[in-house]
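User: For my dataset I need records formatted as: sequence, then structure tokens, nothing else. Please produce one.
Assistant:
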Amino acid sequence: MVYTLVCTLYTLDDPACIQKVKNKLIEASRIYSKDKETLSWLVMQDVKDPRMFKVVERYQEEGSQKYHLANPYQKTFDPWVMPFLAKPIEVLRHEELDTSKDVEIE
């Protein structure tokens, strides 16, 4: 079952902060996407509120996060990004539904 994290980052109301976080997320995606058992590490910016960013981290299974957490870049990411955020990062955890088989709708 694919294990997915959806993280919300909300920056300070400053165009420079917004751009810095945007660039950091692009860098992070390029690095984390190469981690073992990482299926994808997607970053996006809200179309109406440029201060809001989402990160969708997809792993083969929940235990696959250990490779992400062991990445040396991980130890530098939070300390770097936190001063530019208006509130703590929100993290939601999900297991993707298996859509490979037909289902019966009653």
